[in-house]
């Protein structure tokens, strides 16, 4: 057993899985979320519910921020009742949000000025791998951050890639992953839309593609949402509006062309503006005209 206190800020699909994995690894896991009901549920599983990031930080010298973006990271760290003001010198922040690399670099500097350590540590793998402690982490930061982080990383991830000793490299690799993820989801939606338009049975098309060379992890994972007409957001359309936007912003600074990323970004933008922004990212298929989407299976 490990009696070390660790804090998790953000109990969404990934954050709750991380918190549970750390709990199984023997840590005393303090957690907070804007939804008190989720925090209370986690407390019922053996965790410690905290009313704010500041309250959590007062009890822990390692905190893991599992929020959506840079704005939320800024709020939970530096906003009212933010964690940073309550952290003791030498404490570590492990940042898991997908953010612009420049933000990760700047955040590392700001935390260092306050006597704190930072590990740039975006995550991937989905809710199921987070829950089983098998997700992938793309990390970068100084050796002192890794030394303090190692037991926590071991408890929350299956693969931890050490990509460099400066902040921002982990975030660069993550947005490249998001480039591929977003393009693959958009391409999967386009392929299924063409199949529906041409009158191909959707379930049969899925079966064939997943056993053929055109398959991708995203096709295999997301198309069942379409077949089941279940657009409950595990990862929402608006996430890829944000993430592909970060991809394009990063490339724009060096005038690097990304034509497929730009097209996929426009598809997610179109879906969001049509009112599907908070639906599962597979709902990008709803932008295609003249098709009838599967109605799902009616359970008896």
TrEMBL record:
InterPro entries: 6-PGluconate_DH-like_C_sf (IPR008927), 6PGD_dom2 (IPR013328), 6PGDH_NADP-bd (IPR006115), HIBADH-like_NADP-bd (IPR029154), HIBADH-related (IPR015815), LtnD (IPR050006), NAD(P)-bd_dom_sf (IPR036291)
SUPFAM superfamilies per record: 6-phosphogluconate dehydrogenase C-terminal domain-like (SSF48179), NAD(P)-binding Rossmann-fold domains (SSF51735)
EC number: 1.1.1.411
Keyword NAD among UniProt keywords: yes
Keywords: Carbohydrate metabolism, NAD, NADP, Oxidoreductase
Catalytic activity: L-threonate + NAD(+) = 2-dehydro-L-erythronate + NADH + H(+)
Ranges where the 3-hydroxyisobutyrate dehydrogenase-like NAD-binding domain occurs: 168-287
Domain 6-phosphogluconate dehydrogenase NADP-binding residue range list: 5-164
Role noted for this protein: Catalyzes oxidation of L-threonate to 2-oxo-tetronate. Can use either NAD(+) or NADP(+) as cosubstrate, with a preference for NAD(+).
Similarity section: Belongs to the HIBADH-related family. L-threonate dehydrogenase subfamily.
Name of the protein: L-threonate dehydrogenase
Organism this protein belongs to: Robbsia betulipollinis
